Amino acid sequence: MGSEEDPRDYDTAQKHFKIGFVIAGVSGTLMWILMFFWVFYYNGGLTWGTNVKSEINLHIVLMIFFVIYLQGHGSLMFRLFPTKPKIQVKLLHAGIHFATVLAMIIGLWSAIRHHGLNNDPNFYTLHSWFGLTAIILYYGQFLAGFTIFLLPWASLRVRTMIIPYHKMMGPLIFISSTVAAATGLMMKALGTVGKRYSGLPSDAMVLNFVAIFLLIFACTVITLVYDFRFRRRPRPEGEMLLSESEREQ
What we know:
By secondary structure, this protein is an all-alpha fold. The protein has a domain at 63-185 and 209-247: Four Helix Bundle (Hemerythrin (Met), subunit A) (Up-down Bundle). The chain has helices at 7-42, 57-75, 77-80, 86-117, 126-150, 156-192, 202-226, 244-247. The longest helix is centred in the last third of the chain and has 37 residues, at 156-192.
């Protein structure tokens, strides 16, 4: 970092961030709205133990809304609220990711339950491998973040040592989640649309647009997270004991 920063550069960066955040918000919202529409209009809605065909829909809805949409927004909290006290942003960041942790448990269980009802094996597809990898890494990331950065007992030296890895793993886990979601959408399209897919019926078109908005959302979130111009600037109040590396989150 330089010793001085032109305020005009910061203002320009904030304008660019807001544009990117709007793109992420619109594409992400369209993604899960179309997903809900497909689930309820074309695929039987949400059920639990009453319909073998639609049992998997809970898994789809939870993973798209929480693991993709909310996880992506949770990653942007420090960029979205640059002037808020950091402890408040930390609590919001942790709360969003905790909700995603709970949704992952229910979503994974609903998929396993669906396979059991259909006498299908578990964890043999590329989708399941990416998904399970993302879930394991996400749980580890959440546990490390909660115990080291939210609770007060970790030393400054430990936080300074861990923060670069924590910041690196977040986007990688999000990318893994996105790949798992994309491969899952392809599996669902082939499984439900089948041979009609080549004719691009309306239900297949909806799933294709879900995947397109998923890609736009994911690429925008990753860009906003990785672009150094959008980092949170150090603030004097409440951050005097933070290391420089943690401040730059």
